[in-house]
User: Fold this.
Amino acid sequence: MVQGVGFRPFIYTLAVRYGLCGWVRNTSAGVEIEVEGASEALDAFVRAIRAEAPPLSRIEAVTVQEIPANGHTRFEIQHSQAVEGAYQPISPDVATCDDCLAEVFDPANRRYRYAFTNCTNCGPRFTIIQDIPYDRPKTTMAAFTMCSQCQREYDDPLDRRFHAQPNACPECGPHLELLPSPALGTPVGWDDLPSDPIAAARALLRTGHIVAIKGLGGFHLACDATNARAVQTLRARKGRAAKPFAVMMPDLQAVRSVCQVSTEAAAALQGAECPIVLLPLRPGGPIAAEVAPGLRELGVMLPYTPLHHLLLERAPDFPIALVMTSGNYSEEPIATDNDDALQRLGPLADAFLLHNRAIHIRCDDSVVRADANGVMPLRRSRGYAPYPIPLPFDAPPLLATGAELKNTFCLARDQYAFMSQHIGDLSNYEALRSYEHSIAHLERLFRVQPEVVAHDMHPDYLATRYALRRSERRLAVQHHHAHLASCLAEHKIPPGQPAIGVIFDGTGLGPDGAIWGGEILVGDYGQYRRFAHLRYVPLLGGDAATLRPYRMALAHLWSAGLPWDDDLPPVQAAAAQERTILRQQLERRLNAPPTSSMGRLFDAVAALVGVLQEVTYEAQAAIWLEARADTDERGAYPFAIERGEKGVYRIDPAPLFAALVRDLRAGVPVPVLAARFHRGVAQVIREVCALARAETGLTTVALSGGVFQNSTLSRITRQGLEHDGFTVLTHRLVPPNDGGLALGQAAVAAYAIRYG
Ligand code: ZN
Ligand code: ZN
Ligand code: FE
Assistant:
């Protein structure tokens, strides 16, 4: 990636430094340079290309070829011609760089306190690009004509704003404005607010108001994260009972005062992607408990636009953290358009901090966790998308439509997989519209005309129905096979090298019609075989069971042959009449499809130990259970492993439930119960992987599926498997959850076309 990142000016500067003549120009494949001069100078020049490359560039290869001297007398930057149909890299949005930040806070600078300051090394990209080639007229900055000073910077190869397409200043660029909510009425004291929109927004935030803030890829809803009342109001208005909110804090020092920040986490927080990083909370800090109820972790990000830096600027009477949550109602796509935001978010926010630079494509904040092994994305969106994932083999042009929840889709061509930004849950009309719009937009941006459309096997996913409406050749990919392929593809495992895949998630349709989710597979891109799975239990009431973990606990107790005794929390959670109906459902197998879901096993255990009986967001029970687990505990509950039909192993949790009920009655504390469960799951993974290695000789294990967002389970599992001599692959580029599924679908489809 050498375009739109200041690469040609960088080459120009190098050529001048080494006294070389010639030219540089963009090509469809990257950048081409012709230089002539003394041979030592040429060598030094070539070395410096890699050593000093601009921060946002990424160099895959430097190829040098000798040609006769052409007698150039100076060095020039040649203008690029777009090659129709060629792939042109598009940069993700980039957090404000230190140079720009220094200008924003320098009273002598003409961009002093200007919220839209940017340069070649930072600023909006993906969210403002309407078409390629990336040039100002094809961005939403086309509406602003540069003033003479900005134009001079833009035209000067030695200026750090040379060809910075979003270049702007207070003279000529976008501006802020603060409006009261059209739905809630004007806040008291409005007329006394400062005239500067940022100062006024800060005054409102300080006094407990909720402000909708237009950012880079959409709107945030902001409030004082240390004010319990404000956070409660935001929850009530947004219809979000308990799902954690992310916060933004002014700087790393502030973050350290509230959370434990490892070296890896600090690097992630300060990276150009500027994601939300999940960090262990220090006890007793100033953040209101309502921000992340029931959790020991907090999602934190640093400011990534000048607007955020100004908004969060430290002051004795200003909160150290603002809740910054997506500007939407639960599950709807994030708002991007001013009018749309005023209308849809009117009932949610007391005021709107707007600007007049249009957002062409929405892009939510990314979420990652950082550990000793690096970064694991949980949501790959702003700052990462649409930077391509390199594939281990060439793909024909294709589209993979992704899953139902946490949807992303994937377009692939040649050696690239373009994972879309986070689309979200495809459960409503707005999300589906955003999905279809984004597919069309990315197909055009990357010039991908799919020959094949890959989709999940589940016929009712909206992403599957969308695929079925398209006219191209289609290919159904089993959900857990896609998870496995996703993990293999991001690690560039070549075709024909199978691995053991431990794929644990909430739900995915199996070819036998059951709901899979506790799968140990053996396979590669071309094929897979089910080596082992969690024993089937009835999913009481189908999908409704996911909202009621106590039902999963009752189903597991029933399957384990354990009585529904009145002292057990999930038994108490179900009324006597409901229990009678559930028992009938179990005995007659009515509305109780079989499931091997590992996510639901976590739910069942969370309910059984009394952590949570009903949930308001996906995986809440499992997340709360993990948050309670005692990290010093060394015990582990047993599973039984039996060889079933066709040699497929069944992992039976019955012994685990028997031990758990015994411990519960003996008064063993919940953190110990939770830890023993996590360690039991990790232990059975080791045992089954050992069986798989004995049978197949394979020594590589891929861990994928949403359950591996659980860092306790991931860590213990990895340690155990590595101790046993396995090579362990975990996700580093795409999420282990369904947000990474489309990459696997794409890899499976590409393999089927290329080698099938
Ligand atoms: Zn900059
Ligand atoms: Zn200007
Ligand atoms: Fe999944």
Observations:
- The CA atoms of residues 87 and 446 lie 6 Å apart.
- The domain at 7-77 is CATH 3.30.70.100 (Alpha-Beta Plaits).
- Residues 670-696 form the longest helix (27 residues).
